Amino acid sequence: MRTCLVVDDSRVIRKVARRILEEIGYEIAEAADGVEALAWCRAAMPDAILLDWNMPVMTGIEFLRRLRAEPDGEAPIVVFCTVENDLAHIREALDAGANEYIMKPFDGDIISAKFAEAGL
Amino acid sequence: MTAEEIAQIVSLCRARAGLKVAADKTYLIESRLAPVARREGYDSIGELLAAIRDRREEPLIWSTVEAMASGETSFFRDRDPFREFREEIVPPLARVRGGAPVKVWSAACATGQEVYSLAMMATELAEADPAVRIEFAASDLSRIALERAQSGLFNQFEVQRGLPIGQLVRYFEKDGEQWRICDDLRQRVRWRRINLIAGLRQIGRFDVVFLRYALTHMTEDAQRKVIEDLTFILPEDGVLVLGVREQVAGVSEAFQPVFGRPGLYRPNPEFRAAAAA
Predict the structure, then answer these.
(1) A88 — contact with chain B (CB < 8 Å)?
(2) Considering only alpha carbons, which residue of chain B is nearest residue A80?
(3) Per-residue model confidence (pLDDT) at position B275
């Protein structure tokens, strides 16, 4: 089964995303910030990562830059999922190695479409 | 709504636009027509319909029919047809046309996502080979949909349905809470209001016609008429693109399916010869 790490400091968002992603066939792990996410990735690199931007301890963009520098860190498909909805943020995310980008609010259709566009 | 009112809507839509309105979908009818009644200054759908009966005013009739016709769309809907357009449909046509533009018509374009997706493909084709020239026309029955399409403005939900993020960054600018498609793409498209059952044979030749998920909402007679007219505007090497799983009356006689490419059709030369005889 394909695995997806859901990284968001909101428990509610993690729960909603988990339900949607489980429905399209992912096994889910959760992390509440970038540091936790990095620990997860070092233990077991997921196939996909749904990534919030603004989080305490370590932001999503910082996590992404560190992830891409890790051994095997290029492997996971990373889909940002954030309230940041201006072109500057989107460009920054893509430059840092994000594969797709979701602007909140999202629903099941958007998540499955974006995962499909990212090649998942 | 009363049964008479629903019957009035069903017959109006069929007569004017060949639309097949399901009489049992009261909710759909109400959700489409309530905004029309409000906009035109009536307190209810009943009053709107009474005004149509009493005064037979054309603009009012069309506002009503157009609201029932408006379809749903998204960027790169079904995905495959757009890849096929870029890789399989346009390149051979462009070669044969030898520098003359390949003419593409997005019929029943609704709010424009389809023709803009095609225009993005055209931009990428021209980058790879500047000799490839494509001209776009787009039409819809609904003037409101056409105005929105022409504005090139889409909300955050719309730009996240089918549009890869790379294309958003490349072709759109943020405009308040909306996203505006760049002028390059907007200006590539000629827009026209076209009623598909009003006769298409005079509108000129098109090499490629995208007509997806519109005929599904039309009566069988209307489907046959539109399909037959299309054989007169598509050249022998032209391509008709219907919806991937769309069943349309008359298409199996007038066109031949492209093997392994659901929704793609080429004119059937025998049908054309018989129709011309």
Answers:
(1) no
(2) B165
(3) 73
Cα A83 to Cα A86, B53, B158, distances in angstroms: 9, 50, 16
- Cα separation, A67 vs A54, whole angstroms: 17
CA distance B240 to B230: 8
pLDDT reading at A117 higher than 90 = no
N-terminal to C-terminal alpha carbon distance within chain A: 12
Helix (H, G, I), strand (E, B) or coil at A9: coil
Give me the helices (H) in B70-212, please. Answer: 80-84, 90-97, 113-128, 143-151, 165-171, 183-186
State ipTM: 0.92
**Looking at CA atoms only, how far is residue B79 from chain A in angstroms?**
10
Q: What is the rounded distance in angstroms from the CA atom of residue B167 to the CA atom of residue B117? A: 9
Give the three-class secondary structure for B153: strand
Which residue does chain A place closest to B74, by CA atoms? A113
β-pairing, B239-241 vs B208-210, is parallel
Structure tokens at A27: 């096994």
Single-letter code of the amino acid located at B235 = P
Tell me the average confidence (pLDDT) per consecutive run of 10 residues in chain B, 277 residues long: 95 97 94 96 96 93 94 92 98 94 97 98 95 96 96 96 95 96 96 96 95 96 97 96 95 95 95 77
Please choose, from the candidates B209, B207, B245, B203, the residue with its C-alpha nearest in 3D space to the C-alpha of residue B227: B209
